[in-house]
Amino acid sequence: MEFPIRSLRIINRLLRKPFGFSAYRCVSNTAVKEEATSELLTSFNQDIKSGGAVPVFRRALLFPSRVALQDDFGTYTYAALYEAATALSKDIAAQLSGETEYTISYMCSNDASHIVVQWAIWMTGNIAVPLTPLHPAEMLKYYITDSGSKLIICLQDYEKILRPVSEELAKPLLVVYRPKDGTDDQGKGGQGIDGQGIDSQSNDDELKEILRRMKLGKDDQMKDFSISDVGPSNIWYGGTEAMLIYTSGTTSKPKGVVWTHRMLSTQISSLHAAWQYCAQDVVLHTLPLHHIHGQLNSLNASLAAGARIRMLPSFVSHSVWARLLGTGEREDARVSVWHGVPAMYARLAADYDKMFADKKTRDYVRATLSARMRLMCAGSAALPESLFKKWEEISGMRLLERYGMSECGMALSNPYRPVEGRTLGCVGLPLPGVSARLAAATDNGLDPLVTVESPDPDTQISVDRLGLTSNKESYEGTWKTSVAEHKLSKDGVFEGELLLKGPAVFSRYWNRAPQLESPDFTDDEWFRTGDTASFSDNKFKILGRTSIDIIKTGGYKVSALQVESAILEHPSVADAAVLGIDDDNYGEIIATVVVLKEKASLTLKELKDDAGKRLAPYQLPKTMLIVDQMPRNAMGKLDKKVIKQQFGDKLVMKKK
Ligand code: AMP
């Protein structure tokens, strides 16, 4: 069944209903505006106290004239994105006859279109399921079917991918367009179009007018808009679902993690408190948006703070270097925060060695980064120690490593302050709203070893803390953890499976058994992460996925992540993965696949001699395979399933 856009518009006009326009209204007169903002804030905070959640798009009403986003096509205020989303939400509502709580799959580029579509879905009270063009058609079909999506939305650029999928699955497809804006885009969208935002039909006068108004003038003068509140009440959002984030499915089929608006708000408050987000931040966004790292840390937590996002279509090392150094950028658009995965930092560091050869340039790079960057975070995979040190040398900044998952957003983090508290190889303590526990597997189930609690974050919105007023209030003291209980430990080190609990942690997968029957949760409702971790000296350390990274060899348990980190210290090694290979004598033996730096050579003996300075003999690899390229997924994580499939046989042969 196909719903051409023209008929959608007609359906829209026939069915258009007013949906929840409320008393909130942002107006341009300054005095009236301040009063209205303060009233709005008070009502938001009352709603939160009564169990509601303020969806991210609605926070835009607090700072409509601030710049929300700069992408490769233009610069947009919060009001502009909000207006475009409002227009699109009418099409969506019409398509679904005003029904709410349906899942809607959507595919956009990393630009304003993603925010507009996501907000429009939320404005209609439906659930956003972000898709990526990086996935093949079969996977897209799986996500659309598993999520039971009622509608598919895509940017014009991806119609070729999604039209056949929508026809096969008999799902309506809504295509959104970038405006032509007087230039001939030849129907391609993307590069070279001087247009902003999206248009659900490029010839439509109503939307053209919105897009014209979205566009900032050459002098980038802020425009004030009169925008009205759209969508159900905050109380309603407090009890409903916002989005599904599919897990990467390394061990089983990807599962849709249900993110409620409340969980999203809790995570946002937690990150705001722990990492001190503020409206003055300029956040560089280079992460995929079908993953929680890009959705939460870089996108939604930034938008909820009234910050400015500089979004790139994807991670390209040279463009990221240019943005980090602020090349050709206006003062107020210079990047101050970046969230990256270790593979991105590794690539930047490798290009740094090639691009910035002389001391003067290196001094400039270091001085610029340390003066401009407020925060540089790393996570989603282990940050090797050599990279942590190298980045500090390059930038003068200590990376803040954190641990997170699709199921719990961000869970553990090194401290924001003091900077010296950010410890090599560790992921710190539970973030506000998360309790973390290590448990040992016994014949009778899981035996708790140590539990560390962090109180719930303050979910009230504070414009003072966000730096939106002249009374900048500090977040200091808003994040405190305590060890709730622990077993006795001889050397003060606990090691076991990492369990998580709290309002910032999810409670169910979409389309799967309810929580208490699920093997993903313990009987007392702790989420089993599937990661093994240790706790000592008041810090957690991630040892890896229990199923694949904990190698059982000759009676020892070895963390593949620790061995990888040690191997990466070798000057000839550019990339490394460590695997366990089945062995009759040892159970498993440690094997490594490495990529060498240009013109470098390496023997297993040389590697062992070097890594032996940092590892015990039983932790050293027994076989090594040198390859040209390491399989990594869209998030830059080592794809161990593929690595094993591609190289496992060769490693077994080398062993003999
Ligand atoms: P995903 O749900 O795709 O974000 O993957 C979550 C998994 O990434 C976790 O279960 C960990 O195995 C891994 N991970 C995330 N952050 C870290 C980190 N800082 N160190 C080591 N592994 C990490």
Automatic annotation (TrEMBL):
<dbReference type="InterPro" id="IPR020845">
    <property type="entry name" value="AMP-binding_CS"/>
</dbReference>
<dbReference type="InterPro" id="IPR000873">
    <property type="entry name" value="AMP-dep_synth/lig_dom"/>
</dbReference>
<dbReference type="Pfam" id="PF00501">
    <property type="entry name" value="AMP-binding"/>
</dbReference>
<feature type="region of interest" description="Disordered">
    <location>
        <begin position="181"/>
        <end position="204"/>
    </location>
</feature>
<comment type="similarity">
    <text>Belongs to the ATP-dependent AMP-binding enzyme family.</text>
</comment>
<dbReference type="GO" id="GO:0006631">
    <property type="term" value="P:fatty acid metabolic process"/>
</dbReference>
<feature type="domain" description="AMP-dependent synthetase/ligase">
    <location>
        <begin position="58"/>
        <end position="439"/>
    </location>
</feature>
<protein>
    <submittedName>
        <fullName>Malonate--CoA ligase ACSF3, mitochondrial</fullName>
    </submittedName>
</protein>
<dbReference type="GO" id="GO:0031956">
    <property type="term" value="F:medium-chain fatty acid-CoA ligase activity"/>
</dbReference>
<dbReference type="InterPro" id="IPR045851">
    <property type="entry name" value="AMP-bd_C_sf"/>
</dbReference>
<feature type="domain" description="AMP-binding enzyme C-terminal">
    <location>
        <begin position="562"/>
        <end position="637"/>
    </location>
</feature>
<keyword id="KW-0436">Ligase</keyword>
<dbReference type="InterPro" id="IPR025110">
    <property type="entry name" value="AMP-bd_C"/>
</dbReference>
<dbReference type="Pfam" id="PF13193">
    <property type="entry name" value="AMP-binding_C"/>
</dbReference>
<dbReference type="InterPro" id="IPR042099">
    <property type="entry name" value="ANL_N_sf"/>
</dbReference>
